[in-house]
Amino acid sequence: MNSILAFYNSSIGKKIMMSLTGLFLIIFLVEHLVGNLLLYANDGGHMFEAYGAFLVSNPVIRTIEIVLFAAVLVHALLAVILWYRNRQTRPDKYELYRLKDNTPLASRTTIITGSVIFIFLVIHLDSFFLPTRFGAEKVSSYELILMKFANPWYDLFYVVALLLLGYHLKHGFQSAFQTLGLRNRKYTPLIDGLAFIVWFLIPLAFATIPVYFYFFQQATSAVLMGVH
Ligand code: HEM
Hints:
Helix content is 82%, strand content 0%. It contains eleven helices and no strands. It has helices at residues 2-9, 11-37, 46-57, 59-89, 95-100, 105-108, 110-134, 141-148, 152-179, 188-216, 218-227. The radius of gyration is 20 Å and the shape is elongated. The relative contact order is 0.11. Protoporphyrin IX containing FE binds next to helix 2, helix 3, helix 7, helix 8 and helix 9.
């Protein structure tokens, strides 16, 4: 027990936990994207809703969902602790040190991009997760998507948040493999290929969704908003 606590308290222990939770969150993103791409079936949200209903009714998925929320909280909390400790120990008040600081921009800004993603997540859950699961009025996820994405400001916020998510993952994904000691000559080409999918293609695919709904589903949204 003591050794677990000591591991948790050490910086490297925290970094390993951040890497593992981060990789788990990326797996969730892949699953979430696959589900969301069903929105392109152009069948009035039929397949998308069926997939959602399957997930909600599955006890294993419901359990994983609890792990997912715990992973988000652990990842965010450890990031803040590590960032704060780092700030306290680094003499970056000195200009000379700053000039020498050649860590990539994506790495120095992960705490900022991470904070925006956290805010995005709170707004996102408030838009979709809370009303579909706990709302008094029964409304489907598809209807909510149509209504929310009819607002250009909401869409712009999503696109910006997803841009920052890409930037966050650009550093985070590589850094996780570094921390876990998996970045050697044999695996590097594979990791680099996966990294491109993770930091570029996944956020890009998510970002097409609000854009698509704004430009191509306006008529359906207008009908729906007339009803509600
Ligand atoms: C832009 C496209 C996206 C759409 C259309 C979308 C849609 C949805 C919907 C409808 C739900 C509610 C599902 C339900 O509980 O029935 C949901 C939940 C959720 N979304 Fe998204 N989402 C998008 C992007 C994202 C991104 C980029 C993230 C993470 C950074 C994210 C994280 C989550 C989480 C954590 C949940 C709650 C867990 C779950 O229900 O699976 N979503 N999303």
